[in-house]
Amino acid sequence: MNQNELETWIVEQLSRGVSQQEIITSISTHQGLYWTDAEALVRRVAEEKSQTIERKQAPLLTALAVILFVTGLVTVFLGLSVYLQLFIGEKALPLNAATLLMAFWQFGPEVILTVFSGAGMVVGSLVGMKRVWLSLLG
Q1: 125 or 130: whose pLDDT is higher?
Q2: Is the pTM of this model over 0.85?
Q3: Cα–Cα distance list, 52 to 7, 23, 120 (Å)
Q4: Of 79, 124, 76, whose CA–CA distance to 103 is shortest?
């Protein structure tokens, strides 16, 4: 395998999520390079081709981010639906401070945990998507 083919193979392996240590071991074993030379080569290729590697990983990251975003929105809605069920519909309670306090006392911890978990999923998805968009557009 010549240098260009080896670099292409390294990029493919890194795009698939193979650890650098496994790639270094494989290069040392099959190409006959010393460990330090293989390690330097893998690190150099990873740095030089980082945008290419991120672009190849983008479809998977995008799918995960979208799934996480939708799951977060559903979780937030389900958390808030407990309160909505109390104040909307035929058997709705009057909307005043006493019923809000009673609802918070009865359902507060469950709702807070669910809403914060869902909001965390949405924010995490958006942060992850920022990295993907920057790699695709930058």
Answers
A1: 125
A2: no
A3: 12, 17, 29
A4: 79
